[in-house]
Amino acid sequence: MNDLLEWVTSHLYLVIVIGFAVLSMLGKKGKPGGSSNRMPTFGGDPSRELNRKRQSDQTGTHTSQTSGRAVGPNQSSDQKLEEWGRNILSPSTAESWSQHEENSIGQKSVEIEEGREAAEIISLQRKLERLERTNRSLVRELKRKKDLNRQASNTSAERSPSLTSSQLANGVIWAEILGEPRAKRPYRYRK
């Protein structure tokens, strides 16, 4: 007994690994149908395949998935595989698959072209909007300059040609008094 305890303590890692393996096997054995929290395979639900195989083993015959013909229990697995391959790789299936690929490639290229054209149209519309805004602002500026020129020509005819320096100084002072506060007219403009 002493030898057994000494061996277990000296090989503790091995004992733990063996213990977990046994517990894992017992845990899997207790669950019916395997674990249900697994990601399904891309080929279909494996539990359906197992149920189909169990039923075919019990009855002795089953129908082929692709052809619908009855496959007997005495038919070899090579024959079953060969029949499956013929049905999957039949010329009509290959032709339809290639047609499907050609159609999808053609459709994708048309969609890409339509997307490019739409993007180009949107880009041109934005450029047109910018040009229209620029045109409107230029027209407004031109009208404003025309109005200023008219006012200047009208006021120059009305103005008396002799302004004294005291009148100019009074004009500057009144402009400072009646104009905007200095705080709202900074010396530098930030860019």
Automatic annotation (TrEMBL):
Name of this chain's protein: Uncharacterized protein
Keywords of the record: Membrane, Transmembrane, Transmembrane helix
Top-rank lineage group of the source organism: Bacteria
Ranges of compositional bias, category Basic and acidic residues: 46-56
Chain positions covered by the region annotation Disordered: 29-81, 144-166
Biased composition range(s): Polar residues: 57-78, 150-166
Segments traversing the membrane: 12-28
